[in-house]
Amino acid sequence: MMAHSVIAPVLLPLLTGIILILLREKNLLLQRSVSVLSILLQILLAGGLLFQVNGGEILTYSLGNWPAPFGIVLVADRLAVWMLLVTSLVALFSLLYALNGTDSSGHHFHALFQLQLFGLNGAFLTGDLFNLFVFFEILLIASYSLLLHGGGRLRTKAGLHFVVINLVGSTLFLFAVGVLYGLLGTLNMADLAMRIAVMPQEQVPLIKAAGLLLFGVFALKAALVPLYLWLPSAYAHTSAPVAALFAIMTKVGVYSILRSYTLIFGSQGGLAANLIEPWLLPLALLTLLIGMAGVVASKGLRQQTAYLVVASVGSLLVALGLNTEAGIAAGLYYLPHSTFAASACFLLANSIASRRGMLTDRFESAPPIEHARLLGGLFFVTAVLLAGLPPLSGFIGKFMILRAALAHSQFVWIMAVILITSLLALVALARSGSLLFYKVQGAPVPARMGTPSIFAETIPIVGLLSLCLALVLFAGPVSGYLQLTAEQLLQPAGYIRAVLLMGEPN
Predict the structure, then answer these.
(1) Which of 98-107, 193-202, 211-220, 277-286 has the lowest mean pLDDT?
(2) Is there a domain that residue 336 lies in?
(3) Could you tell me the residue range of the domain that residue 434 belongs to?
(4) Beta partners for 445?
């Protein structure tokens, strides 16, 4: 069983999705039970892998007994397992919220949810670029269907933009992969790293072009400026649990940037070394600024949360753009914080909207809502997290980023942008809370017919906020693990050796 632990997080959601398709005519309670059980098992698998790689081991799995670079290889290192754990935790609480009725508003919700996890887990574990493309396509298909779940004009419009833009990205991905394979004869990432490090001078222009094209594709997936325009509409108009799960989707692009440009085009990349270093930090700062401008200008809480996701991508890539151990460790700490907080805010926005009548989550004065104190308290905690105020995980993450940036030549610009955008987030969220909970008028509005109990709605939100609290309580061990993760990423020889020399076929 230990030998197959690397492929288990990929196979489990795939098999669960197939089982759920076969159970589509059965009782919804049975489908829910199977889906929740699968995610709980995925959390256990991620935890088990975390224990295995904690000492620095890099686990490989060669499918079909074909050794790398000739066959498909899965690789579990500290970074991949960290992403698996964050994804499974977000999925659990998103699914628990969906059990309040979202899953019954359309067909095949649970099967699609599991296939989405299949794509996510595969993208984090794959060791070659072509299979990264394959898992991206699985993500696109499942996410498009989940985005439209429940129907509606606005969802259909947002879904059309979402799928068209991502299909363009997929086409460009194929172009980049084709160029690399044509020149180097391999798509295994470890093998690519070795070959690019010693490539001849005449291949440099084409390989650099392919590398920058890959960066454009990953930037699109991550919603980096100027390729972010698909995200606010898509995330704001889909159902709350789907938007909560989608908070991890932009991190797939971030992960791909980090993996590719430390392993393949990093400091050991020969004539293509540090390929995106001149681009990443300026674009990240611009993404943070434009995302926060969207937060300030938003007219509803769901739209505001979507722009907060864009801004969080900017903050995260600022940290990674420092290209140092401290910067990468800070970014990897900030990643789960921003994901958990944004997911909680999407769920909370839906709970508020369902109790405000026709005004839903718009920032307009409305009658007081049921359970205003409880929902207002949860909004306050979420706002503190998203604005990065002490003593919660948002503050720790931003403090780590600023501390890592102290030695950078652009430290003044980095500090100015992060502090100004944090202030704007605080002002915008304070205004939002004031309009939603304090500037009320008229008689209380009863919740919409069929609104779930407040207890059932708030448990997933509290669960996500508790994960942010855990990042504070265990900040020492977590930051220590992430420091070692950053060190492992910036010394890719261990990854290459594990895949090409030490990994035995299973």
Answers:
(1) 98-107
(2) yes
(3) 276-473
(4) 369
